[in-house]
Design goal:
D-Maltodextrin-Binding Protein, domain 2, 43% helix, single chain
Length: 433
């Protein structure tokens, strides 16, 4: 699942965060009788284990109990499941993990948290709080932010006299050279590059990075104009299609985050596109690439291009249909607090949403790239969620399907972006989204 965030957050994350407010601790929300809550807090990588530990700590402090709901890996499947439950006004789920592009889509089903927070939201990145505020209501608290990164085998690059690539063209050539060399040396499973290539939200994140890196726009611009039908966007998709079956396995068309990580962490890929969470897992004792991994910004689209990372992130929200509202809010405020975000940054390399933690020595020791690549996280590219609102999921589905059609060789980039532009015009139905 992991993980894709709003554009507004990218531009102003470095802004001052206002007055200092004491971080909440378990029990700050209004008291309630003992409750049994259900939370959906992730199932990718270490998500489940870390969430279990933290919710157990909260339970021990409050006397409440928490059950973890195992969500699907795909963000697309998670949203479909939540919408089904919300449509039935089900009270099964109390706390839900919300992708940063969902607040406008599911706003009517989420509790306004502002009356409970005592101003603690002022310590988080202002743009993410703005993103989570819909129609004047704070419908979710930031849990972690994200951006796409390039992972690489620093030992293999050194072995073959290569450097971390500046452009996609350099990455392609380096991946091919090392893949061929390692296969000749006996590792027939070696791949040059793995990424998220199946038809789901993760492919929209990857494709937006490719298109934006070639200065092909953001699919739909902030003014609502549809920009995807252009030569640079077509070039970007054709470039990625060339990878499939050459430096990337054909099976990449079925890869999500975990499939890509599995190949890379088993020592069978030179490069990987993934989110920051993969770092801590790559450094565990059972990882075949421990101490062999480097991280860089994603490559530019040619010498005249730019590095572009899709900003991602997840929030925690309380369902309007929860029967234990006060306890659920208290759990959300605990899990999104400075102390807990610091734990998650150190243990799982989850990017905090509290600027102060990016200067914390313990955090930087555990994830050094939080400092060196901070600009990647604060200047990342937005998916067109704010401008399309409730139609975003339909827009993204059209985008990833057009991309998949190109990657799988069913159409050339120019044909795909032209057809996509027409489809988006139909989705818009007029001048307004």
């Amino acid at each position: 699942m992991k993980r894709c965030a709003y554009g507004a957050a990218a531009a102003v994350m470095l802004a001052a965060c206002g007055e200092k407010v004491a971080a909440p601790t378990a029990g700050d929300a209004p008291k309630t009788t003992t409750a049994e809550l259900t939370i959906s807090c992730g199932s990718v990588g270490q998500d489940f284990e870390i969430c279990k530990k933290l919710t157990d700590e909260w339970s021990a402090k409050t006397g409440n109990t928490v059950k973890l709901f195992t969500a699907p890996n795909s963000t697309t499947d998670i949203l479909a499941l939540f919408r089904q439950q919300f449509g039935a006004q089900s009270s099964e789920m109390d706390v839900v993990m919300v992708d940063v592009v969902w607040p406008g889509v599911i706003k009517e089903h989420l509790l306004d948290l502002a009356p409970y927070t005592k101003g603690i939201e002022k310590t988080h990145f202002p743009a993410i709080i703005a993103n989570n505020t819909v129609d004047g209501k704070l419908v979710a608290m930031p849990w972690f932010t994200d951006a796409g990164l390039l992972y690489y085998r620093k030992d293999l690059l050194e072995k073959y006299g290569q450097k971390a690539p500046d452009t996609w063209e350099e990455m392609t050539a380096t991946a091919q050279k090392i893949q061929d060399g390692e296969r000749q040396a006996g590792n027939k499973e070696m791949q040059g590059y793995v990424f998220q290539g199946k038809s789901y939200e993760g492919l929209s994140c990857n494709a937006l990075e490719w298109v934006a890196s070639y200065k092909g726009g953001s699919v739909i611009e902030a003014d609502g104009s549809i920009s995807i039908d252009n030569p640079q966007a077509a070039k970007a998709l054709d470039m990625a299609a060339h990878w499939v079956g050459t430096i990337a396995p054909k099976s990449v068309l079925s890869f999500g985050e975990e499939e890509a990580r599995g190949v890379f962490q088993n020592g069978n890929a030179v490069f990987m596109r993934n989110w920051p969470y993969a770092w801590s897992l790559s450094q565990k004792d059972d990882s075949k690439v421990k101490d062999k991994v480097g991280i860089a910004a994603l490559p530019k689209g040619g010498a005249d291009g730019q590095s572009a990372a899709t900003l991602g992130g997840w929030q925690l929200a309380v369902s309007k249909y929860s029967k234990h509202t006060d306890a659920a809010v208290d759990l959300v405020l605990y899990l999104t607090s400075k102390e807990v975000q610091k734990q998650r940054a150190i243990v799982g390399s989850y990017n905090p949403t509290i600027p102060e933690l990016y200067k914390d020595a313990d955090v930087l020791k555990a994830a050094p790239f939080f400092g060196s690549l901070y600009q990647v996280f604060t200047s990342a590219v937005a998916r067109p969620a704010s401008v399309t609102g409730e139609k975003y999921n339909e827009v993204s589905s059209a985008f990833w399907n057009a991309t998949y059609t190109t990657l799988s060789g069913q159409a050339k980039g120019a044909d795909s972006v032209k057809k996509l532009g027409q489809e988006l015009t139909h989705i818009r139905r007029g001048d307004q989204w």
